[in-house]
Amino acid sequence: MRLLIAIVLPWFVFFTIGRPFAGILCLLLQITLIGWLPGAIWAAYAVSQYHTDKKIAQALKR
């Protein structure tokens, strides 16, 4: 679900994963239509890293 949001509203994803400053920067980038694509790619990458970090944290708990 976050990946779909990353494509449609890239700035919002950063707020859902706890990175508000990146969200504000991405919103500024998204305001320009040229920055929409890099913002969406950045958000999708951030979601991927978020899931990877969660898996690593869960593996270290065991």
From TrEMBL:
<feature type="transmembrane region" description="Helical">
    <location>
        <begin position="28"/>
        <end position="47"/>
    </location>
</feature>
<keyword id="KW-1133">Transmembrane helix</keyword>
<keyword id="KW-0812">Transmembrane</keyword>
<comment type="similarity">
    <text>Belongs to the UPF0057 (PMP3) family.</text>
</comment>
<dbReference type="GO" id="GO:0016020">
    <property type="term" value="C:membrane"/>
</dbReference>
<dbReference type="InterPro" id="IPR000612">
    <property type="entry name" value="PMP3"/>
</dbReference>
<protein>
    <submittedName>
        <fullName>Membrane protein</fullName>
    </submittedName>
</protein>
<dbReference type="Pfam" id="PF01679">
    <property type="entry name" value="Pmp3"/>
</dbReference>
<keyword id="KW-0472">Membrane</keyword>
